[in-house]
TrEMBL record:
Protein name, per record: Sulfurtransferase
Region entry Disordered, spans: 43-63
Cross-referenced InterPro entries: DUF3886 (IPR024980)
Top-rank lineage group of the source organism: Bacteria
Organism: Geobacillus thermopakistaniensis (strain MAS1)
Length: 80
């Protein structure tokens, strides 16, 4: 019983991390992959934002006079 308790305390003090188990080379590869994925996600989000802005600009260009007049806050009754 005492031996088991002693082993359990020893295991708790020697907490093994994932980095310890994998090794330096594998850890470096995983960190590089993580950075690459983060950069790719950032590029994807930037491209999506640019596409959305371009689409909005095109939509704004294609509006008819009636749509522009409808969006206008001017009221002809004030200028009568």
């Amino acid at each position: 019983m005492k031996n088991r308790v002693a082993r359990k305390k020893e295991q708790e003090t020697q907490a093994v991390t994932l980095a310890d188990r994998l090794g330096a080379e594998t850890e470096a590869k995983l960190l590089a992959k993580k950075r690459a994925l983060a950069e790719e996600e950032q590029r994807r989000l930037a491209a999506e934002e640019a596409r959305r802005r371009e689409e909005e600009r095109r939509r704004e260009e294609q509006k008819s006079f009636a749509e522009l007049l409808e969006e206008s806050e001017l009221d002809w009754r004030k200028f009568k």
